[in-house]
Amino acid sequence: MNALEIRGLTKRRGDFALQGLDLTLPAGCIMGLIGENGAGKSTTIRLILNALSRDGGTVAVYGKDNRALTPLEREDIGAVLDEVGLPEYMTARQIGRMMAGIFARWQPEVYRDYLRRLALPEDKPFRDFSRGMKMKLGLAAALSHQPKLLLLDEATSGLDPVVRDEILTIFADFTRDEEHAVLISSHIVSDLEKICDYIAFLHKGRLLLCEEKDRLTEEYGILRGGTDGIAPAAVCGRHATPYGTEYLVRRSAVPAGMTLGQVNIEDLFVFMAKEA
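Request: output the structure for the sequence above.
Response:
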């Protein structure tokens, strides 16, 4: 079953337009959403949450239109946005009591366990938390009402490498349940390379590609030097360096015996965004 199916999703906000977005996130998987600032990542996540009204297209969460979810079905979605919207004057302990009155499936023991695991003080006001601590508290709350789908907008931003690694482990553990899934946007592409099953590239409101991560690195390579003997359609991007031009090419279209360099996910996005 698919945790998330998006078809032809459109939204115009001022000068920005999300253009016919198609995404499918299977249950049991993690998808990384990559794009520059203003590419449409946050807009996409807010449209999934129905926090923004869409202009066109469809969004289905576990097979049901996101606008038709019951209050209990909405609890299947846990979200941590780029700005964690919790009351500034409340402590983590008080926030836990507040959440117990909001979510029918709130798990106080799970919440307290995450507070300990993420080294969050229970009696410090939220306003005195660092950005990283705020993100961690938002994540603890999102994971404590038995969600099946996690939506994360720059959730690892502001965290040190050790804590980021611990949180990535939490995401991986979360998707051991084959009903669970994660959609995470991040500027830290190395984090997404570690844990994601699928990668989606957004650029100026347009989806450049969405593919299994391992297939991307197998399908593309970097050619240094000229493109003699290669069909123009095989070249997917180019990048000028002080040492010459590098080309992003499809391995299947390159003559046998031609040496290609490995490409990582960040390189792949940069090449494609420059060409788009």
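Residues 93 and 122 are 5 Å apart (CA to CA).
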